[in-house]
Amino acid sequence: MPQSTCLKVPKNQGEEALSIANRLKLVNKELDIQRDETYVYIPISVTPLAGDLKKIGGQLSHFELSTRVFGERKRPQLSMTELLKNEVPLYLLADLPHAVDFVGDIGIVEISKELEPYKNVIGQALLKANKNVRTVLAKAGAVTGTYRLRDYTFVAGERKTTTVHREYGCRFYVDVAKTYFSPRLSFEHSRVASLVKDGEKIVDMFSGVGPFAVMIAKTHPNVKVYAIDVNPDAVSYLERNVRVNRVDGRVFPILGDARQIVNGKLIGIADRVIMNLPEKAFEFVDIACRAIKSIGGIVHFYTFIKAPVSLEDATKSFTEAIKGQGRDVEAVLFSRFVRETAPHEHQVVLDARIR
């Protein structure tokens, strides 16, 4: 069996590491990924350049380069490009969607105007290339509105928008047309859950169908998570997800605006606050400060930045916003680029201890 250089990462960062390595075109597709009880080993075909290592280090809390013996991978299924080489003009093959969001058995793609006449054959190819996918939808607009919803057009497979998505041992019922859900945040859900300590009280200010709240409660039997969302459909699915994951009595779904809910009943109760509303997070810094206990606590703050704004700039703006509420950032415990959302635009996260 061949020996190869590999990325060695903690098991709970395996999905994120594989995604990064694929984006950087480092993964050796001829060899099988390996796992043990602690680590995931991703074989790479070339030694990462200094710039690649910096990108990896900026998104993973821990990784190392190692050498390991790998088994050879079985012949993979045909790619979408291979399946479509006789269906789509050659000059358009480079425009085929390479990024697919898989929410349960639904595949969500972005199809350019040039490829619009071929969307149905693209959908059929995606179904053939991904045996677990039963529905293909195409993005028909940006995420907008108070409920953070996106329009979709049906492309192929079963005509539906509901599914069951699985992450790290949790099941999430979701309707992608009626609720906000991003599979690209799976690592964040797991990462934040791993930081919670037994006995904590957490306020999830924009919970959606509950990926943060449910995962926290699933992995910590003695916590209380107050999960707030303004979207009635999201709260309905959240309540269902609480039941199916058996975290009743640990997650408390609350329908309403986070500002009104915290001011009404959750002032000064939280050891930890989750703020996953990146487009408006700065508008709710005051509410996060009110939810945190008087002795202080942790805030997980998500926002968007666009070049030339840097992660350091975002940290400075957040620190100043906290000071404006009569509190202080005692320490920024962690920060990273979470995902690219548009050319030169990223979602980022800051973990900060507030006093």
What does this structure look like?
With 355 residues, the protein is of the alpha/beta class. The chain has 3 domains: 67 residues, Alpha-Beta Plaits; 81 residues, GMP Synthetase, Chain A, domain 3; 176 residues, Vaccinia Virus protein VP39 (Rossmann fold, 3-Layer(aba) Sandwich), CATH 3.40.50. Helix content is 27%, strand content 29%. It contains 10 helices and 17 strands. A 7-stranded mixed beta sheet has the order 13-12-11-14-15-17-16, with helices on both faces. Helix 5 crosses helix 6 and helix 8 runs parallel beside helix 9. The radius of gyration is 21 Å and the shape is globular. The model has no long low-confidence stretch (mean pLDDT 92).
Question: Which key phrases capture this entry?
Answer:
355 residues; alpha/beta; Alpha-Beta Plaits; Rossmann fold; 3 domains; seven-stranded mixed sheet; four-stranded antiparallel sheet
Concise structural overview:
The chain has helices at 14-23, 50-59, 80-84, 119-129, 186-195, 211-219, 232-244, 258-265, 285-291, 311-323; strands spanning 3-10, 34-35, 39-43, 64-69, 101-103, 106-109, 135-139, 152-157, 162-167, 170-175, 201-204, 224-229, 251-255, 272-275, 297-306, 329-342, 345-354.
What is the name of the CATH superfamily of the largest domain? Vaccinia Virus protein VP39
Overall CATH class of the largest domain:
Alpha Beta
Secondary-structure element string: EHEEHEHEEHEEEEHEHEHEHEHEHEE
CATH architecture of the largest domain: 3-Layer(aba) Sandwich
Q: By helix and strand content, what is the structural category? A: alpha/beta
Tell me the β content: 25-35%
Low-confidence stretches: none
The main sheet orders its strands as: 13-12-11-14-15-17-16
Q: Helix fraction?
A: 25-40%
Radius of gyration: 21 Å
Count of DSSP strands: 17
Count of separate DSSP helical elements: 10
Average pLDDT metric: 92
Give the overall shape. globular
How many domains, in number, for the residues?
3
The end-to-end distance, rounded to whole angstroms, is 55 Å
Sheet having the most strands: 7 strands, mixed
CATH fold-level topology of the largest domain:
Rossmann fold
